[in-house]
Write the structure tokens for this entry.
Amino acid sequence: MLSTIATSALGFAAKDLAAGAKRANVKAQASSEFAYGLPGNIAPAGDFDPAGFLQGKSELEVMRLREAEITHGRVGMLAAAGFLVQENFHPLFNGLGGPAIEQIPQLPAWLWFVGTLGVGICEANRIQIGWANPYENPANVQALKPGYTPGDLNFDPLGLKPTDPAELREMQAKELSHGRLGMLAAAGFLAQEAATGATWGQGDFSFENLLLGPLFKQEAVELARDAMTFTN
């Protein structure tokens, strides 16, 4: 009987050791993957981290960086779309266009209050969903909740979130790609307006200049034609 009990105990211990080893193996494999296996390392860039932001970072720290990237990417997409749409469609308030930095001071005071309140409500909701409570532990300052997926705010009114894990990962990669492009586009719009003092639609652009460059502008073509006519 004692031998039976001992054999059973050894069997349970072996199972526990095997399960623990399996969990450790999975954890080690995840930590060895780029960005702890998060989506976003898309070809052709692949594992792109030239500044070394991920070196020496724990999983929670990497998750926090991804949360920041997704949040800024979503804002960037909205900002880039806003730059494009408001160029020819701005019916609110005085209807004036021009660079965004010049439009902001013209907004009424009540809109500043409503905008600030709306942003505060959205950020408070995001903090409640994904961020750890710093009052419970000082280490929770600027830390995400364990198990929280960056960007998952339970907001899907159109039901676009796939249920299949592979399809969900693909959609997450697409959102990251569009968000990164949106951040670059918004930064480009801001830089262009700051440098020229005019919006992209007010610039003197043409498809011909875009393709052929300044050396082949219409004025240069006409000048060359006039010079040939004069020599003949």
Notes: The radius of gyration is 28 Å. Residues 56-198 form a domain with the Chlorophyll a-b binding protein fold (CATH 1.10.3460).
